[in-house]
Design goal:
This protein is of the alpha/beta class. The protein has helices at residues 41-58, 63-79, 81-92, 96-113, 116-119, 155-166, 181-192, 207-215, 228-240, 263-275, 298-306, 326-341, 377-380, 396-405, 419-428, 464-470, 489-496; strands spanning 3-4, 7-9, 12-14, 21-25, 32-37, 124-129, 132-140, 143-147, 170-174, 200-202, 219-225, 244-248, 253-257, 285-291, 345-348, 367-370, 387-393, 408-409, 412-415, 434-436, 452-453, 456-457, 472-480. Bound molecules: nicotinamide-adenine-dinucleotide. It holds the Pfam family Aldedh.
Length: 497
C-alpha cells in the first residue's frame, strides 16, 4: 500500500484530514511512492498556534541547552547519514554520492547552529555618558517559516530550521511537495535529539498552503528557496504582510575559461559542474565562457561529456540521476529544441536518452551547445538540466561585461593560472559567490550563502552570521546606575538572607 506522508504538528506525526492529495513519484520510474496531503487551513493554523505556544517556553531555555540539542542532532544525523541519503536518493533520483553530499552539507549547518551562543553576542560601550552604559541584546523573533525546493531535500531545510531554532525561535517548515519524505525523517531525528514538542512543525502542500503561511499574522520570518518567479512572488507577498523575507532564486552560473588555464582541470571540472546532479543545482555551471584560444577545448569537453551516463541512484556507474518529473524533462527538451531552432550548434544531444531497465524514468543525456548567443532562450533561461551552453569572447573584460549583463548573480568561476586575471575577476564581477579554479564555490556555513541580484531577494542571506541576524532582533539597552544606591555593608547582609 502506498504510504501517506504525515504532518508534524504539536510534537505528533499525524494524518491529515485533507480531501486533496498529491502523488509523490520516483523520478527513475514515475511510480507513485507516497501520497501527500495538502494541509487544511485548520491544520496550518494549529501548527502555527502550537509553534507560538512553544516559543514562549523555548526562548527561555538557556542558550547552551539549545546548543546541546544541536550537538545531539548533529551526532544523530551523522549516525543516520547513509540511510538518510538512501531515502533522499529514492525520492529525488539522485545518485547515492550526491545524496550523501546533500546530507553532509546540511550537517555542517547544524554544527554551526551548535555554536549559536558566540553568534548571539551583543555589543557594549561603557560610559556613553557619566555612569551610563549601552549594550545590545540579541533576541529571537517568534515563529519563523521555511518553504523549500525539491533539489536539496536535506541541505536546504537544514539551512533554515536548526539556526532559527538554536537562536530561540520556533519553526514551521513547508517542504517541496515533490520530496517530502526526507523532511519527515529529519524531524524524527530532531525529536530524538531532544527538541521539545512544538519547536518544529511540518505542513505540506503547494501554493495554497504557502499563501496561508505568508498571510498569517503570527509568522515573523519567511525563508524561501526555489525558482525565480516564485521567489519574487514570495518576497513581495511576504513583505506586504510585514514579514522579514529572504528568498533565494534561480540562476545562470558562468565559468570563464582563460587560455592560460590547465586544460585537464577545465574539462573535468566543467563536466562535473554542469551535468552533475543532472544539472539540478542552483550553483551548477550552465554557461561556459571561452576566452580567446581556449575555445579549442570545446572538442575535448564534448568527448568527456559524452562519457557521462545517467542511471538509477544505486547504480555505481551512473554519473547522475533522472530529472525530478516528467514536466521538468519536457521543459528541458523543449529548451534544447529551441536552442537548435535558434541557431546554436548542438554538439551533443541528450534529448533522446534511455536507461536500460528503467523505460519510464525522466532521463536526459548530457547536452552541449556551442555558438550560443545571448539572445537565445538556452542562454536566457535557467534550464535546470544536464545542458551546458558555450559562448566565446575575446578578452577577460568582455567575459566580465557579459556576466554582469546577465540578470542573475548566484555563482561564477574563473579558471586561470594568472593571479592578476583572478584578482580582477573577483573584484569586478557582480556575482555573490566566486570560484577561482573552483567550479561550484558554495561557502561553508561559517560564511553565508551570498547570491546577488536576480538570484536573491532580501538583505540577510542563508546560514552563517547573516542568518543569525535574520532570525533575531537587536535590542539596545541604555543603563544608568547610581553610586549612592550601592548598599552599605549591613544592608548587603540582609539582602543575601
Ligand atoms: P519551485 O519554485 O517550483 O518550488 C519551491 C517551493 O515553492 C516549493 O515548496 C513549492 O511548493 C512552492 N511553490 C511553488 N510554486 C509556488 C507558487 N506559485 N506560490 C507559492 N509557493 C510556490 O522550485 P523547485 O522547482 O522546487 O526548485 C528548483 C529551483 O530552485 C531552481 O530554480 C533553483 O535554481 C532554485 N534553487 C535556488 C537555490 C539558491 O540558493 N539560490 C538553491 C536551490 C534551488
Amino acid at each position: 500500500m502506498t504510504q501517506s506522508v504525515p504532518l508534524y504538528i504539536d510534537g505528533k506525526f499525524c494524518q491529515s484530514q485533507s480531501n486533496e492529495w498529491i502523488d509523490v513519484t520516483n523520478p527513475a520510474t514515475n511510480a507513485v511512492i507516497a501520497k501527500l496531503p495538502k494541509a487544511t487551513d485548520a491544520e496550518i493554523a494549529r501548527a502555527i498556534e502550537s509553534a507560538s505556544h512553544a516559543f514562549h517556553q523555548w526562548k527561555e531555555v538557556a542558550v547552551s541547552e539549545r546548543a546541546r540539542v544541536m550537538l545531539r542532532y548533529q551526532h544523530l544525523l551523522k549516525e543516520h547519514h547513509d540511510d538518510l541519503a538512501e531515502l533522499l536518493s529514492q525520492e529525488t533520483g539522485k545518485i547515492l554520492l550526491d545524496a550523501k553530499g546533500d546530507v553532509w552539507r546540511g550537517i555542517e549547518v547544524v554544527e554551526q547552529a551548535a555554536n549559536i551562543a558566540s553568534n548571539m553576542m551583543g555589543e557594549t560601550v561603557e560610559n556613553v555618558a557619566t555612569d551610563i552604559d549601552s549594550y545590545s541584546l540579541i533576541q529571537p523573533l517568534g515563529v519563523c517559516c521555511g518553504i523549500t525546493p525539491f533539489n536539496f531535500p536535506a541541505m536546504i531545510p537544514l539551512w533554515m530550521f536548526p539556526l532559527a531554532i538554536a537562536a530561540g525561535n520556533t519553526f514551521v517548515l513547508k517542504p517541496s511537495e515533490q520530496v517530502p519524505l526526507t523532511s519527515i525523517r529529519l524531524a524524527e531525528l530532531f525529536e530524538q535529539a531532544g527538541a521539545p514538542k512544538g519547536v518544529l512543525q511540518i505542513v505540506h502542500g503547494d501554493k495554497q498552503q504557502v499563501d496561508t503561511l505568508l498571510a498569517h499574522p503570527d509568522i515573523r520570518t519567511v525563508s524561501f528557496v526555489g525558482s525565480v518567479s516564485v521567489a519574487e512572488y514570495i518576497y513581495h507577498t511576504g513583505t506586504l504582510h510585514n514579514k522579514r523575507v529572504q528568498a533565494f532564486a534561480g540562476a545562470k552560473n558562468h565559468m570563464v575559461i582563460m587560455p592560460d588555464a590547465n586544460k585537464n582541470q577545465v574539462v573535468s571540472n566543467l563536466v562535473g559542474a554542469s551535468v552533475g546532479a543532472a544539472g539540478q543545482r542552483c550553483m551548477a555551471i550552465s554557461v561556459a565562457v571561452f576566452v580567446g584560444e581556449s575555445k579549442q577545448w570545446i572538442a575535448d569537453l564534448k568527448d568527456e561529456m559524452a562519457k557521462m551516463k545517467p542511471g538509477a541512484w544505486d547504480d555505481e556507474s551512473a554519473a547522475y540521476g533522472p530529472l525530478i518529473s516528467k514536466t521538468a524533462k519536457e521543459r528541458v527538451i523543449r529548451l534544447i529544441d529551441e536552442g537548435k531552432a535558434q541557431g546554436a550548434l548542438c554538439e551533443l544531444d541528450g534529448s533522446d536518452c534511455t536507461v536500460s531497465g528503467l523505460p519510464n524514468g525522466n532521463w536526459v543525456g548530457p547536452t552541449l551547445f556551442s555558438g550560443v548567443t545571448t539572445d537565445m532562450s538556452i542562454y536566457q533561461q535557467e534550464i535546470f538540466g544536464p545542458v551546458l551552453v558555450c559562448l566565446e569572447v575575446d578578452s577577460l573584460d568582455d567575459a566580465i561585461a557579459l556576466i554582469n549583463r546577465n540578470p542573475y548573480g548566484n555563482g561564477t568561476s574563473i579558471f586561470t593560472s594568472s593571479g592578476g586575471a583572478a584578482r580582477k575577476f573577483q573584484h569586478d564581477i557582480q556575482v555573490g559567490q566566486v570560484g577561482i579554479n573552483v567550479p561550484i564555490p558554495v561557502p561553508l556555513p561559517f560564511f553565508s550563502f551570498t547570491g546577488w541580484r536576480g538570484s536573491f531577494y532580501g538583505d540577510l542571506h542563508a546560514y552563517g552570521k547573516q542568518a543569525v541576524r535574520f532570525f533575531t532582533e537587536t535590542k539596545t539597552v541604555t543603563a544608568r546606575w547610581f553610586d549612592h544606591d550601592i548598599p552599605t555593608g549591613p544592608n548587603l547582609t540582609i539582602q543575601l538572607k
